Amino acid sequence: MPVQVCVFDAYGTLFDVDGAARIAGEADPSGRLGEVWPRLAADWRRKQLDYTWLRAAAGQHADFWQVTQDALDWALEAAGLQDDELRAQLLALYEELPTYPEVRTELQALESAGLACAILSNGTPHMLQRAVAAAGIAEYFDAVLSVEAVGVFKPARAVYDLVGARFDLPHGEVLFISANGWDICAGAAYGFRTLWVNRQGAPQDRVFQPPEATRPDLTGLAAHARRL
């Protein structure tokens, strides 16, 4: 069955999750943040994901914007940077994260190939709307799907069900693309065709099912999708 739609994870796949801390840190190269922003970014992302899994396991959902704020507060305290003005700056930057350099070119190529595109994300509808608008890529997506429709975070099966509900396609006609190893393994086990964007050169996660294919970034995605 040929692929009909490409479904992207958002954060870490399309949007650079280190971007907020990096932009703020590079604007203050001689200050404290200029020295510690890589650690801050890593802690922020790690806690953000930890909190989604813990909330899902406990059945105590809070939306991704709340989780993002809670994770940032932990990361700022760990870095000794508890500052209300800095917190507000970082959250504002997070709402308008930059995309990775190859994103627009590959989305244009997918459009030219006649393939539908969608986002499937932990992000809230508002967060995703702000992000795609700020990046100028909204025109490339036929749907932007948020876990808020089902009230639980990935990798819950109900999240991946949102794709079928929107596109009414068999799993094998969906190419799911994610930079998160646990997410792509869950998508593979669900039955999607899968492409892991292994931006960090990380080992493959030992959960669920291995991804079908792996690339270091999104370059060549459209050509790959056309071959499936």
What does this structure look like?
Helices cover 48% and strands 12% of the residues. It is built from 9 helices and 6 strands. A 6-stranded parallel β-sheet has the order 3-2-1-4-5-6, with helices on both faces. The N and C termini lie close together (8 Å).
Summarize this, please?
By secondary structure, the protein is an alpha/beta fold. Helix content is 48%, strand content 12%.
Features:
alpha/beta, Rossmann fold, six-stranded parallel beta sheet, DNA polymerase, domain 1, 9 helices, 12% strand, 6 strands, 228 residues, 48% helix
Estimated helix fraction: 40-55%
Distance between the termini: 8 Å
Major sheet summary line? 6 strands, parallel
Whole-angstrom Rg: 17 Å
Strand % is 5-15%
* Helix count, DSSP H or I runs of 4 or more residues: 9
User: Which fold name fills CATH's third level, the topology of the largest domain?
Assistant: Rossmann fold
**Count of beta strands:** 6
Q: Show unreliable segments.
A: none
Show the helix and strand layout:
Elements: E1 5-8, H1 19-26, H2 32-58, H3 64-78, H4 84-94, H5 103-112, E2 116-121, H6 125-135, E3 143-146, H7 157-167, E4 174-178, H8 181-190, E5 193-197, E6 213-215, H9 221-227
Parallel strand pairs: 1-2, 1-4, 2-3, 4-5, 5-6
